[in-house]
Amino acid sequence: MDRQRLIQQIKSKNSYLCVGLDTDHAKIPVHLQSRPDAIIAFNKAIIDATKDHCVSYKINTAFYEAMGLKGWAAMEETVHYIPDTHFKIADAKRGDIGNTSTQYAKAFFETLPFDAITVAPYMGSDSVRPFLEYADKWTIVLGLTSNTGAKDFELQKTGDEYLYEKVLRTVAGWGNPANLMFVVGATQASAFENIRRILPEHFFLVPGVGAQGGSLKDISEKAMNADCGLLVNASRAVIYASEKEDFAEEAGAIARQYQFEMGQYL
Amino acid sequence: MDRQRLIQQIKSKNSYLCVGLDTDHAKIPVHLQSRPDAIIAFNKAIIDATKDHCVSYKINTAFYEAMGLKGWAAMEETVHYIPDTHFKIADAKRGDIGNTSTQYAKAFFETLPFDAITVAPYMGSDSVRPFLEYADKWTIVLGLTSNTGAKDFELQKTGDEYLYEKVLRTVAGWGNPANLMFVVGATQASAFENIRRILPEHFFLVPGVGAQGGSLKDISEKAMNADCGLLVNASRAVIYASEKEDFAEEAGAIARQYQFEMGQYL
């Protein structure tokens, strides 16, 4: 999906919500757990109930890998089930030397039909560039993350700037605002104005709203640009809105609330 | 596998060789490519031919993910085929917020029987700690890697030290030399004495010998400690030693050469 189409989706839906499919067998409603197709049945119901309120889905690969082969199969079936109108993110945090990153890019952009993958920057340019070589695909590089561990390295000074600022500036030079986004955690609201100054045009993928406590209002006021420039992810707050038979309906209701609130900021 | 057993394996075999199973369908011998079980047939033949000369196998997950579901199945079958005497590394470069890293740990330490996983440090403590909670399992954190991109961030100064030095010192405090190793690329030989001073006791996983040009002699002279403290990985140089029907025999011969050379340094 190219940048123009993504922006068009956001404008037509009045939403920049990404729903995170961090699907954990132990957390889905009990009435589904005994089904052999529990994960995919849950995901399909969530997608059906939320697709009118979001523009993107983010599949957290860890939750599927934890289930082994049947988990990988459920991930494949899920990404194929997501409508073509929606921006499909593999939240995989990959990154390795060039010839290996080329294989990860193949895994998520060719073998699987994702539009984007999250990538860790530590290993530098040749670990990121193979992902950028695909037309109309996106590389979403970790900038400043939402977790407490962000202080250990991301918020350490390298010269006059924080490491995460160096990452944003350096990695931005390897791509452009039509093939590169950055992860900026919603819990880092105080840094958002600075980050938007560094990167006025790029989209940010913003996890950390909901279960992790970030404020949608804060982020939207501080970091939205003329093209929106934000994909705000909610995972647990949406998909586990209810643990009963009404789980999909409740997930849809939460997604609709986010969409309504986002409509105010757009 | 605990540290004592790993050291015992190294001493009994006179080898600290890790064979990297970066198995790429396009690079395996032509006579195998048309077989439906091409990848697993290749891996089994390589393991049979090399197991007397190495103490460890490293499965590069990217190459298996690139093949989709059948690739993940081949990875599962391969890790189960590796003898229990050998240290099994998932070279996966994972790392995410705590609840997600917990899922990755489950994927590779519970669902699959790996002894170790490689982890990227960028997101800090809570992205690494879930892996450290498993008894007799190992977390191998990226320190200074073998690729050209290492200069972009790893070799940037944070205060008085390089970022990679801060990573080594900081992460070392989260575990101990019996559950934590670091990746240090063989092409970084000039830094090895310094790294060994920072971490006198830890094991280093050293990729970059062979196709990437690192010198086994240099590394061994500069970084070996009383317990050996090294696992040196060769992937392409061993597994693609021949593209003909004698591929396994030739892989075994190269592995035996490494073992012989390692015997001189031990």
Automatic annotation (TrEMBL), chains A, B:
It holds the Pfam family OMPdecase. Coiled coil: none annotated. This is Orotidine-5'-phosphate decarboxylase. Belongs to the OMP decarboxylase family. Type 2 subfamily. The keyword ATP-binding does not apply. It comes from Flavihumibacter stibioxidans. The keyword Lyase applies. It catalyses: orotidine 5'-phosphate + H(+) = UMP + CO2. Keywords: Decarboxylase, Lyase, Pyrimidine biosynthesis. Pathway: Pyrimidine metabolism; UMP biosynthesis via de novo pathway; UMP from orotate: step 2/2. Residues 16-251 form the Orotidine 5'-phosphate decarboxylase domain.
